[in-house]
Amino acid sequence: MKPIRYTMIGSGTLVPDIERGAAAHHLQCGDIHVLVDLGFGTLRRMTGLGLSLNALDVVAISHRHQDHLADLLPLLFTLRHMPGERRVEPLALIGYPDFGADLDRLEYIFGDWVSEPGFPLDIWEAADTPVEVERDDAEVNIDAYPVVHSPEAVGFRITLGVAGREVIVAYTGDTEESEEVIALAQEADLLIAECSVADGLQVPGHMSPRAVGRVAAAAGVKRLAVGHFYPSVLALGWDEIERRIREAYHTGPIELGADGMEIDL
Ligand SMILES: [Zn+2]
Ligand SMILES: [Zn+2]
Q: CA angle at residue 80 from 78 to 82, to 5 degrees?
């Protein structure tokens, strides 16, 4: 059976941490490979996990913060110049609103290779979604939803189908508890949720374990994976994080994220 597989590449944040890289998530659907966010250190982490950079078909970026997009230029530069590998396949880049203007600014600073890296770059913004990618009997549909974080921030609702099987994965990006994130996650087979801060130490634009539990329950998700942990939430310990999520969410498994964690869907 062809895989539909999720890998959490980075379970951390902007806080440098040997164990936990910045936000990055990988989905394989048959022969289609999707990277969702690529914070700093993602390329190195992917290499360590045996995930090919050259195999990527789609990169989706949720917002402008460096713990989610810092490795974009390194990725394009590496795909352009990687010794012994010459990429010809197109790469779809799906970004937040005004992402194209950001790329223009980066091109102005760093040069033409940003938008012409030697292989076709298909650039989409949130308003252009859903974007569909097909290969053989596999199909991926990526839809951006606004979330409550920085003004441009979106999450992604991704439908992955192969050989007649279909699963829905919802990724919150960074967000606070809101109607928007519940709509994004509605009935998803897997919700990948940010779980940044301890309850009580809550900051705007992020969720605590209890908030994640309420969102997962309200959306009726079948399975939950949490990551994007700041030190305050890690200090709670796994049992306490899970207990707080379970105060509202009772129906499905909970995976407490770690770099390299894989879930076959
Ligand atoms: Zn952010
Ligand atoms: Zn973040």
A: 55
Using the predicted structure, report yes or no on whether residue 1 has a pLDDT greater than 90: no
Q: What is the pLDDT of residue 58?
A: 98
Q: Packing angle between helix 42-49 and helix 72-81, nearest 10 degrees?
A: 60
C-alpha separations of 187 from 152, 158, 182, 216, 221 in Å: 25, 12, 9, 9, 5
Residue-wise pLDDT tens digits, 86-100:
899 999 999 999 999
Q: What is the dihedral of CA 39, 73, 204, 255, to 10 degrees?
A: -30
Closest ligand by atom to 230 CA: 2
pLDDT of 86 = 87
Is the preceding omega at residue 130 within 30 degrees of 0, hence cis? yes
Q: Where in the chain are the domains? A: 4-264
* Ligand 1: centre distance to CA 73 (Å): 18
Q: Does residue 80 contact residue 117 with C-beta atoms inside 8 Å?
A: yes
**Distance in Å, CA 161 to ligand 2 centroid:** 28
Ligand 2 midpoint to CA 15 (Å): 10
What three-state secondary structure class fits 165?
strand
- pLDDT, tens only, 230-262: 999 999 999 999 999 999 999 999 999 999 999
pTM attached to this predicted model: 0.97
Residue 202: closest CA among 136, 148, 146: 148
> Which of the following CATH numbers is that of domain 4-264: 3.60.15.10, 1.10.3720.10, 1.10.1740.10, 2.130.10.10?
3.60.15.10
Mean pLDDT of the chain: 97
Question: And the tokens for 57?
Answer: 């078909």
